[in-house]
UniProtKB/TrEMBL annotation:
Coiled coil: none
InterPro entries in the cross-refs: Transpos_ISL3 (IPR047951), Transposase_DDE (IPR002560), Transposase_Znf (IPR029261)
One Pfam family cited in the UniProt record for this chain: Zn_ribbon_ISL3
Source taxon at top rank: Bacteria
Domain Transposase IS204/IS1001/IS1096/IS1165 DDE: 152-384
Name listed for the protein in its UniProt record: ISL3 family transposase
Residue span, Transposase IS204/IS1001/IS1096/IS1165 zinc-finger domain: 34-79
Amino acid sequence: MSHASMIIGIPGLEVMRVKSKRRIDVWARPFRRQASCQHCGGAKLRIKATHKRTVKHTRRGNQVMILHLKVPKYHCQSCGRYFRHAFAGLRPRYRSSDTYQMEVYEAHDGGVTQRKLSRTHQISGATVERWYRDHLGIKHSEMDRRRCPRVLGIDEHFFTRRKGYATTFVGLKNHKVFDVKLGRSESSLRPYLKGLRGRDNVQVMVMDLSETYRGIARQYFPNATIVADRFHVVRLINQHFLKVWQQHDPEGRKNRGLISLMRRHQWNLKDEQHANLMHYLADYPVLQQLYVAKQRLVRLMLLKTLTAKRARAKLPQLFELLDQLRDSPLRALAKTLTRWLEPIVAMWRFSKSNGITEGFHNKMEMISRRAYGFRNFENYRLRVLTHCGWDGIINRVRMNAHPPLIG
């Protein structure tokens, strides 16, 4: 390899001249003829003609390097077929090299906007998006070959006002997004769920207290144990309690200091804070009893990784609290918890929660904001899977983005 070829980064080139002004123009040709036919492997080749090819290659400093290549067209006397000279890193009929496209992809993936790349690399914003998607290269067939994770989290998040909500499927054991699909109803997710491979592989499904998702789990994931999400259960308890507080003391409900004390766990309060809160609740005996019951209930909800024997031992305490709540203003809460009793009890056996999914939702929101919003859901889905998806698939995608190069 010549020194010029080493600098350019494409082997087998002989540089004839270079001109540098606003850009770097490099005129080059193959260092030697191609040795064999790319179709039959024959060695009897003759040069039929030569054509010129202009390719954007890379950037040196702030200047774009343009390659002006003299490309021989060969005729194989063994098989009679024609073909052009092959260059490493230059695909046929492309006006830019793989190196140039990779520069644009990595810059855009790192946060550089399409408008900025259009100016620096002298391409259109549509070309930036197309190259980015080509390097992602996530095909539906590749997505279908994945098998469902054993511990699956499911939750919804907002996409756009026009298209509504999307459903996120997360592998909670590997902390990776499995997939994102538009819609949150059984009818909208039905085609995807019916074609999903490895549904029988799912053993645990973590979700909030959504009847829709529970119905989906029972219908499409028959071997999965439904586990309630601990965060949503505790939040539901607090919401019901604060609503009852609003009914008993509307003015006190507006006090931010009291709101903070009411929401926090009792064991996290300082002695002075707990004394002040009890002094306030002394004027509302019913509210005070509900507060004590709420704290006992939350403490039960926070239990995790219990053995089956210890979980059974805790059941009488839970039943006692639910009976107390049925005869109180929190009867609606008791009804909801009773309806979800089995997933809540299953929650004691596991440590995983949908907090991982909520964290991915925050990251998805940042991805959407960086793009000033997405109109096309598939573009959004590809970006989410690239930044939050499984490493094995992304690695295969990056490998498939560079197929064997022939000229």
